[in-house]
Amino acid sequence: MSEADAIEALEELGLRTYEARCFVALTQLSEGTAKEISQVADVPQSRVYDVVDQLHRLGLVDIQESDPRRYAVVSVDVARKRLRQEYRDHLETATTNLRELERRTTDDDGVWKVAGHQDLCNRTAAAVEDATSEIYLLAADADLLEPALLERLAAAHDRGVAVFVEVPSTSARGTVREAVPTARVSVTDFAFDSQGPADRSLGRLLLVDRETVVLSALTEGIVPRETAETGIWASERGHGLIVWFRYVLEERLATVEFETGDPVEPRDPNAECTACEE
């Protein structure tokens, strides 16, 4: 790693530019005066004093009270531990403050638009990771069955979540079966080529614990032969969209034959899901 790479890495960890430069310079010098640090770090000597004092407060530099004052850097291993702890402290503080500020929408206007494929992947991942009882996924395009999603489905099944997946083809069924061997998988009978717009097709339908929905469509992207994904999500058990999809899910589970052959008992649409029990 070059000197510039080391400085950049330290900046990524939260040090300011002059702090990173002075720390790297001291690492090279082992110890030195403000003048020597200034020459190596390319930092004005008048700024070195304040910068190194801050590094001292972080526990990265020792100060020798002499004339002139000399500075010595701690070992790389010690610096790593202290930077890691500093990062963790900042992360914990930020998390605590954000939780205090966090507010969730609980009114009837609970449907949110999702702008792009990555946002939909993030929303899908969060819903699957939070699942406690049941996951139903209809993937109308096999390309949506990305490895990261399959890994999360497998992890959900391992913690006792029932996983139902409908896929567009037998090859896609094999992909899911390989990643999540005990999931209930079926080649869907949905008519994907129905009377919709020619430039738009079905994407994904995810219903988690019968209270969170992620729904998307695929469209032609800006680049030729590139597909874009847009959609919506909602997470409010009493919302009309959730109620409708809970009913649809009941019908699907009662009529679809999943590959495992395990019987799927239809449930009362008004029944409480275990994930919703307080």
UniProtKB/TrEMBL annotation:
<dbReference type="Pfam" id="PF01978">
    <property type="entry name" value="TrmB"/>
</dbReference>
<dbReference type="InterPro" id="IPR051797">
    <property type="entry name" value="TrmB-like"/>
</dbReference>
<dbReference type="InterPro" id="IPR036390">
    <property type="entry name" value="WH_DNA-bd_sf"/>
</dbReference>
<feature type="domain" description="Transcription regulator TrmB N-terminal">
    <location>
        <begin position="10"/>
        <end position="76"/>
    </location>
</feature>
<dbReference type="InterPro" id="IPR036388">
    <property type="entry name" value="WH-like_DNA-bd_sf"/>
</dbReference>
<protein>
    <submittedName>
        <fullName>TrmB family transcriptional regulator</fullName>
    </submittedName>
</protein>
<dbReference type="InterPro" id="IPR002831">
    <property type="entry name" value="Tscrpt_reg_TrmB_N"/>
</dbReference>
